[in-house]
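User: Structure please.
Assistant: Input sequence and predicted structure:
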Amino acid sequence: MALSHHIKTTLACALALPILPADAAAARAPGPGAMSIAQILQAQASGQLSCVDIALNMLNTIKLRDSGLKALLSVNQNLIADAEKLDELRRAGTLLPLHCVPIAVKDNIDMEGMATTGGAEQLRGNVAREDADALRRLRDAGALLMGKTNLDELAVSGSTISSLGGQTLNAYDPARFAAGSSGGSAVAVTTGMSLCALGTETVNSLRNAASSAGVVALRSTPGLVSRRGVIAQSSTMDVVGPICRSVDDIARLLAVMAEPRPAGAEAARAAAELQAGPPTPARLAGKRFGVLANLSGKGPEHESVNAIIRKALDALRAQGVQIVEIDDAEFDSDLSSKRLNVANYEFGPLFEAFLARLPTGAGPASLRAYVDAGRYPAGMGKFLQQSLAWQAPLAMPEYREALRYGDSLRGKVLGLMETQALDALVYPAQKRPPLAVGETPRPERNGIFASALGLPAIDLPAGFTPPDAGAPVGLPVGLDLLARPGDDARLLGLAMAVEQTLQARREPPAADRR
């Protein structure tokens, strides 16, 4: 599918203006999409770039990259006007924490004046009257909102395909897909179509998207970031989270997105620690990481990922990290995904409630009407039919058992971390490298333990598979770090130190390589 008429019109108008750096030195500097937040703030402070320069550079990158990757659904029609307002604020002496930091938004998150479609053709008319809470906080902090990214329709699957946007492809090898329903957001970030992005995660969607795109994503302690203004899939497991190129950028976004007074002791502690000051890299010497051995695959198809994880762990050992091997058959991602995934039961009632709140004509009247229209990706069929068949899913004994088992396993994990004095648990986000379009995405993913147990986790690049004809720089492999609830700031400090040790990120091939 080509760029939508909406995107084409916005690009045509914006790209009629010159895309010029402020001086010759800026011409040699990385483009805004390859900068960190600190660099993009400094480039504006020094006069090297205006916000309009940044917006135009981003639009040019979208023009060059997105038709082949399908990461975006729509571009903010007010982008240049928003950039001009931010430039005016700077000239008047008002500097904001995220001044003109470009951020793309997954299209199940409300952005005022733009449709929130969840990737569904049937929700084209659902225009948001206000920003979602998390997005409002970013906008108020000066973020430049780029537009909406593609996702797995209604965020219910794992390969980033929707009736509205088609199939988002992997920037490192377009024969492979962008894993996770937040794949459009992750691809936009890794290619520089946006500096950072917002995504959501129910089971794997932030961290697997980041792993497949060679970027960083955080699942925070539940309650730390508001979910109001998001099309819900699970009241138990959903979170809104940032995707960026570095842990420092993630920390800057989280500090803004976090609720100042969240409900729940764990989220409140995390918020207080974030408000106390920005996280700094931890000292790795003496830290103890538990490696969940059963979350590494055992077949030859898993060896490339296993080799990268072994090398990463060796590098951490060299920094003084104590690696504790944990071989426990209960940590089985495939079995646990079946036993723990309460989202399967919660989706139907939540989607019905969402549709009931829509204005007349903004979307289908019910889940039955949505399904009967038949305009959704074929891979959703089984899930949707199951949701229709369950008349009272929250009263089903299987749902109650999944909640009970989640509580039990959470206790086991926290007890294990306590008795072994672990600072974090580590494991590959996916047992295999990014999968080819058409392969089944789910069995090789390990995100269920953080999502179902309510624990914060971050994924960051661990390394790359050997290059081949399809992937000339190799394929990215992500490492998950999982911490205790409320330890978000501490987790970020650990991740910063791991990131500095591994230095594993690589840029995807340029558009002209495709």
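The radius of gyration is 21 Å.
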